[in-house]
Amino acid sequence: MRAVPTTSVIKDAKSHNKGSFRRRRLVMIVLACFMSWAGVTLWNQVGKLNARSEKAALLEQKLKETQQAHEDAQREIARLNDPEYVEQKIRKELHYVKQGETLFYVAKEQKK
Length: 112
Prior knowledge:
The chain contains two helices and no strands. By secondary structure, it is an all-alpha fold. It has one domain. The chain is rod-shaped, with a radius of gyration of 42 Å.
């Protein structure tokens, strides 16, 4: 024979289910809050990462330009050690002439 559950057993089962439901709901609320916090934090970090990568790309470009300018300056320093180059540079930029030479200026045509 089977025993018929009494009303107190049924009430205990319902209250047990009610407590279990409350705990599950509390855990789900805590989990939802944690996931929201993690999502916001991840979103902010992605934004910062993108900003840093753009900044790094700009710095890389600036580094390349600076290296090119440095190479050009080194090349110019090496050329300035050549007396013939120095003479050409003085004649062109400062309009110096040797004794007995005449300097002629040629007017450039203006384009309209």
